[in-house]
Structures are given as C-alpha cells and as structure tokens.
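Quick one, probably user error.
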C-alpha cells in the first residue's frame, strides 16, 4: 500500500481537492494499493471544505466532501509520499519530520513538472478555482502514472 498525503494551508480547498481527485482516479483504475489523505499546516480541524471548490470539483465529475484535518507528526510519518502545494508547506512539513524522512516530501509542482511554483490558493489570491483545480488534476494524473503498477491485480 502506498500512502499519499497532500498538504496545503487549511485543508479546505487545494489539498482536499487533490485527495478527492487522486482517490477517484485510483478507484477508476482499480488501484486498491493506494491510500490518499490530506491535511493542513494551520489548524482548521472540523471546518467544512470550501463550497466553491466542492462546486468546481462537481463541475469536473468529482464528488468532494468532508472537513479539514490538521497536519500532525503521526499523519506525516504514516505517509510514503507527501505533496506540498507551496514551498511554505514544504518547509512546515520538514519542521515536523526527522531529517531521515525528508526524502518523501515533494513540492507538487517540482515532482510533476520539474519546476518550482506554488499551486495558488483560490481562497486568498486572484487564482480562479477552475485554474487551480485543473493544475491539481493534471498533477494527480502525473502522480498516478509515476506510481509502480498495482501488484495485487
């Protein structure tokens, strides 16, 4: 089982969208060897997901629901791959993990495109929800394609 964790600021928009997208893609491909979760660097635990991101996900055929979860050392240590939406999140994850586990932390843009840039938060920037969602969806396709084939098929 490969445990994948997405990280953003509050876990109400970008990282839960990534969790929803990758989980849905994995299910559609019959990949039962992948576990997907998300969390936020800021403690907004229990806050509902952003309604506008939920609507954007639905527009593209994804069902997104849930509440924010705060990033904890335990959650981070359980993950095999951690994808940060921004460099700030990458650094926050590093602060919570021992150096020996830093190899599993990736800024999502660098992992997917070999370029470092932030997936901007549509809640607090001029970034359109559709643009952020499509960036995340594109990254999730790449991540899924980079994972080893399902050995239980």
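Nope, works fine. Designed sequence:
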């Amino acid at each position: 089982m490969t445990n994948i964790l997405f990280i953003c600021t509050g876990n109400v928009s970008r990282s839960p969208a990534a969790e929803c997208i990758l989980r849905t893609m994995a299910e559609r491909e019959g990949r039962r060897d992948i576990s997907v979760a998300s969390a936020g660097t800021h403690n907004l635990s229990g806050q509902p997901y952003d309604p506008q991101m939920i609507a954007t996900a639905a527009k593209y055929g994804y069902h997104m629901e849930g509440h924010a979860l705060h990033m904890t050392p335990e959650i981070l240590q359980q993950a095999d791959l951690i994808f940060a939406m921004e460099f700030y999140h990458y650094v926050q994850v590093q602060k919570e993990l021992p150096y020996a586990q830093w190899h599993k932390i990736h800024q999502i843009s660098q992992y997917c495109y070999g370029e470092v840039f932030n997936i901007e938060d549509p809640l607090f920037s001029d970034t359109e929800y559709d643009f952020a969602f499509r960036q995340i969806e594109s990254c999730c396709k790449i991540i899924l394609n980079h994972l080893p084939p399902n050995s239980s098929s």
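The chain has a mean pLDDT of 95.
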